[in-house]
Design goal:
One of its GO terms (molecular function) is acyltransferase activity, transferring groups other than amino-acyl groups. The chain has 284 residues and is α+β, with helices and mostly antiparallel strands. Helices cover 32% and strands 19% of the residues.
Length: 284
């Protein structure tokens, strides 16, 4: 693979806006989306598609400002905070790959080692961490993928979907409709956290971290490359989801049970994963 990487350094905190956060060491969110193209020559991609992706990304990031900032946890601060500066940038890496696009983007079993190169690295140190990194991988005459890695401290489960929808809309139409629900929800007062609970959560960090002495840091365990791990796509239709909700309501003793699509999907995928794990053990 050849890489063309553009990245900016974090500016000084003097001109920064700071936003305290109430969570500590959480996992990273990684996502890869594939886009098949009927015509994707090297010239057309790098002269037309790539510039359009970069321009639309720059425009839409103004509505997701925290994503271009970084996390900071100073020694004197009881908890980390988000720092947003006017000159902040997001790391964007452009990669060309000769991998089989049809296979790697299919719903068949795929080795994790084949998907891992499509996800960028996130710059993280003990007291500072980037929030978002993006990688565009071009597959000549096949298509391209967009891989993102984001710190879970800033982005919840719903925001990535809004992220992709907003970027795709701007890339296609060149503007943002007024009725488009873009802004990230930053108001943490909507979650009622007792005043005494938050300090106690941070006191648990030494027990949750391998670094018992210096547990107050943003470093995360390195991703382990395992040649025996495979990925598979599980597809649930609207009818499947409806059936799962009805099944859960029939099994519940609550008459007014309300279930979101995420809850029933997570339950189904977790159960399927456990089943596959047990079946794999039997074959060993």
């Amino acid at each position: 693979m050849t890489k063309d990487e553009s990245n900016g350094d974090n500016p000084d905190d003097g001109d920064a806006a700071k936003e305290n956060i109430t969570v500590g060491r959480l996992a990273l969110q990684e996502r890869v989306t594939f886009y098949k193209l009927t015509e994707s020559s090297r010239d057309s991609f790098f002269s037309s598609i790539q510039p359009k992706l970069e321009q639309s990304l720059s425009l839409f990031l103004s509505h997701f400002l925290p994503l271009s900032g970084y996390l900071k946890w100073n020694p004197q601060d009881p908890k980390p905070h988000i720092v947003i500066c006017p000159k902040d940038t997001v790391s964007l890496t452009v990669v060309e790959s000769d991998a089989d696009f049809s296979y790697i983007s299919s719903k068949e079993l795929c080795l994790e080692t084949e998907l891992r190169p499509l996800v960028p690295e996130l710059q993280v140190s003990s007291d500072s961490a980037s929030i978002l990194s993006i990688q565009i991988t071009f597959f000549p005459n096949q298509g391209f993928s967009i891989g993102t890695i984001v710190h879970h401290v800033v982005m919840d489960g719903k925001t990535p979907s809004k992220f992709y929808k907003a970027w795709a809309h701007i890339c296609k139409h060149g503007n943002i409709p007024q009725d488009f629900d873009l802004p990230m929800v930053l108001d943490r007062t909507i979650i009622n956290v007792p005043a005494r609970l938050e300090p106690k959560l941070f006191q648990l960090l030494p027990y949750l971290s391998k670094e018992k002495v210096n547990a107050r840091n943003l470093m995360l365990p390195p991703a382990k490359e395992n040649i025996n791990v495979v990925w598979v796509t599980l597809e649930l239709s609207e009818a499947n989801i409806k059936k799962l909700k009805e099944q859960a309501k029939n099994e519940s003793t609550w008459s007014d049970l309300l279930l979101s699509t995420f809850v029933v999907t997570y339950k189904k995928s977790s159960g399927q994963s456990l089943f596959c794990k047990e079946e794999a053990k039997k074959s060993l």
